[in-house]
Structure formats: C-alpha cells, structure tokens
Amino acid sequence: MKDYYAVLGVSRHADQEEIKRAYRRLARRYHPDVNRGDREAAERFKEINEAYEVLGDPAKRRRYDLYGESGGIPSVFEGGFEGFGDPFSDLFNLFFGRGRTRAAHAPRRGSDLVTVVEISLEEAYRGVKRVVEVPRRQTCDSCGGTGVESGYAMDLCPECGGEGRITHTRRSAFGTFTSSTTCRRCGGMGEINTHPCTRCGGGGAVESLDPVEVEIPAGIDDGDRIRVPGRGEAGYMGGPPGDLYVEVRVSEHEFLERDGHDLRAVVELSMAEAALGTVVEVPTLEGTERLTIPAGSQPGQVFRLPGKGMPRLHSRGKGDLYLVLDVQVPRDLTAEQRRLLEEFQRLEAEKRRGQGWRERLRKAMRPQH
Description:
This protein is an alpha+beta fold. Helix content is 30%, strand content 28%. Among the domains are: 110-154 and 193-251, Urease metallochaperone UreE, N-terminal domain (HSP40/DNAj peptide-binding domain, Sandwich); 257-328, Sandwich (HSP40/DNAj peptide-binding domain); 339-369.
C-alpha cells in the first residue's frame, strides 16, 4: 500500500495545517515549471498531488486510514468503483483507462510567451520594425518533438502493461473494494521512453535564443500587445507551438505629452509676447510648425492644430495637437525694466480711472423710466 504520509513527509498524527504546509513546500520544489524537462520531478509532483488529494480532505483521509489507498472508495474519474468487484472494474478501465492514456500521450500546444520592447514616441507615430531575441524552447529537430531517439519508439510500461493505471482489489467483511491509481513508472501514459533523444534528453524541445522580427504599427499606444503566432514555446509530443506576445512600452517625449490620439504641449511666452502678439515655432512629430499668437493672449489659452496628433491605430486620420500658453513672469528685473513696468502700471491705473468716469457719466445720462 502506498504511504501518502511518507510521500508528504508528515506523521500519521499531523493536523490539516501541517499537511497543507508540507504539500505547498514540496509542490514548489517539484513543480514542472521549476524543473523543465526533468521527468523524475514531474513524477514526484504527480505523486505529491495524489497524496494531498487524499490527505488534504478529512473525509478521504479517514477512509484512507481505514481501508488503505484512496480510502477504498475511488471516484469514477479515478477509474474505480465501490462494491462491484473485478468484472465491473475491468469493464470500466477498458472503456475509460486506455482513452485516458492516449489523451495523456497526445500532442499538446506549447505555452505562450510574453516579451517587452521599448520604442520612442516618434517610432510609435511612424511605425517601426524591431528584432527581439526571445529565449524559448523549440521543437527538437532530431526527434521531431517526440523525445525518442531516431529509429526507436516508445515501449509499453512493464509496471502497468500499457494501461497507465494500477488497479488494487481488496476484500473485507463489507465486500470487495477496487481502486485505481496512476502508474508511477509511466505517469499514466502507458509507455516509457527507453531510448531518449540524445540532443534534447527526451524532452522533445531544446532551449534557444530566437530572433523574431516584429512589425509595430503606427499609432500603437503604451501597453498594447502584438501577437506573433507560432513563436512561443514548442508543443508537447509534436503539438503546435504557442504564440509570442510583444508588449510595447512607449517612452516619454521631451516636449509632447500623449492623450489617446491627441498630443499636448506647453508654449512658453514672455509677458510682452503675450501682450503684443508674436509668431513662435512649436514642435510636432513631423517637424516644427509656426504658430501665430495674437496680441492679448492669456495664460492657459489653448490653440489647436488639427491632424497633428497620433495616427489612429488600424484606421484613417490622426488626432490633434493642443498647445497651452504659459506666460512667464520675470523674477529678476533690471532697474530699467522696473522703471518701465512701473510706468506701465501707472498708465494702466489712469486708464481704469478714466474708464470708470466715462461709465458713470453714461449711466447718469440714461433716460429714467
């Protein structure tokens, strides 16, 4: 009888919390993602999961302590059934056991991969091609992904006879109990690789640095992903590869700020330029543009340049460029500048007083109703 307590490394008196901690520790150590290509680690991981499935459930654990492996009452998905004896168990395994073995041994699609590429705002505006080097597992050329050395084939597992599962039958005063567990030798596949490929070690794939050319379209935004079909991890047992997803990061621009399809920029002006009006050159992603600032423009005033924003992804047209005026107030004045500003201030005050006198006169001359 398989000792599930020994598999998890706990005593038979361990509480559920101890069992859970032991399972987590072992699962992290033997997880297939941590031990890629290591068949022993994969088998150990299956065994750990099998033990926790029983001991982690108080009801199953009680049955296991009473009757043995799987508690003497396996679920139908495990290939056994309670109280029906050998004939029913054999019939059930005939229809379901082998089908499951074939499924475990069937080709499977490889995992998807994600990589990140950084581009400038100018490149996002025009579109660009980039070559990224992606570390990935590619199908082994020597064995075609089967993991078996050329000229050989998989052999039937001598432990389970190709069934992929081991059936246990026990008789007691309560009747005959049949249980079925995954074969430890072949991991439920029903076959073993006695002649692993010398190039990939039987894993069916080899590690490589794959250069992939990615076409980044105009108008792409920060965080967008581009899918490159078939450039992910190699498939299992000759299955199709996964896909590669390239996540685009758009770096910040020195002058321009992106807001969806639109762009924004700040135009700095002196007090005199804002008051008298001027013509300034402003940056765009197509070069510089001349912008006429009318006299009397105010701080925070916004000017719009249509069609000078970002291209619309997979569509026609572009966004706009919005320019915000930032009027600079001088901090350190020369004596002459101070004198001129004080004179300007005096004239402004006289102007306001004059306007006030005229307004009062107009009100006095209005006819009374």
